[in-house]
């Protein structure tokens, strides 16, 4: 069962536009994988602490932070960014 992707936040869309074509394609492929299986993949991890209830998808040095609404079958991207900066964002 494929989940629907909610509209991306402006900061995530801006980050994607700033990447090379190869990186953009890898991000789009990762978003497709997240929508297909948002809870199970070797690159997916449930986050703890202040980001409890969110998940992280690892794509090289890029992290995609998202939430899953199982009732609405929707994946909402919270943030996309470089590994060192993504966890410092509010």
Explain what the structure shows.
The chain is α+β, with helices and mostly antiparallel strands and about 90 residues long. The protein is built from 3 helices and 5 strands. It has helices spanning about 10-15, 20-35, 85; strands at about 5, 45, 55-60, 60-70, 75-80. A hairpin with a 2-residue loop joins strand 3 (about 55-60) and strand 4 (about 60-70). The longest helix has 16 residues, at about 20-35.
Largest sheet: 5 strands, mixed
Q: Let me know the number of strands.
A: 5
Helical fraction: 25-40%
- Strand order within the widest sheet? 1-5-4-3-2
* N→C terminal distance: 31 Å
Radius of gyration: 12 Å
Strand fraction equals 25-35%
Q: Any low-confidence stretches, pLDDT <50, length ≥5?
A: none
| Continuous helix count | 3
Please provide the ordered H/E string of secondary-structure elements: EHHEEEEH
Please state the structural category.
alpha+beta
Q: What's the mean pLDDT score?
A: 92
Shape: globular
Helix and strand layout, with pairings?
Elements: E1 4-5, H1 10-17, H2 21-36, E2 44-46, E3 55-59, E4 62-69, E5 74-82, H3 83-86
Parallel strand pairs: 1-5
Antiparallel strand pairs: 2-3, 3-4, 4-5
Salient structural properties:
globular, alpha+beta, five-stranded mixed beta sheet, 30% strand, 3 helices, single chain, 90 residues
What's this model, at a glance?
The chain has 90 residues and is α+β, with helices and mostly antiparallel strands. Helices cover 31% and strands 30% of the residues.
């Amino acid at each position: 069962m494929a989940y629907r992707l909610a509209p991306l936040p402006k900061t995530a869309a801006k980050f994607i536009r700033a990447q090379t074509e190869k990186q953009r394609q890898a991000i789009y492929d990762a978003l497709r994988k997240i929508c297909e299986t948002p809870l199970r993949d070797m690159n997916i991890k449930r986050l703890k602490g202040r980001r409890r209830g969110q998940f992280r998808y690892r794509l090289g040095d890029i992290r995609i932070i998202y939430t899953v609404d199982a009732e609405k079958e929707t994946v909402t991207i919270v943030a996309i960014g470089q590994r060192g900066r993504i966890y410092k964002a509010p």
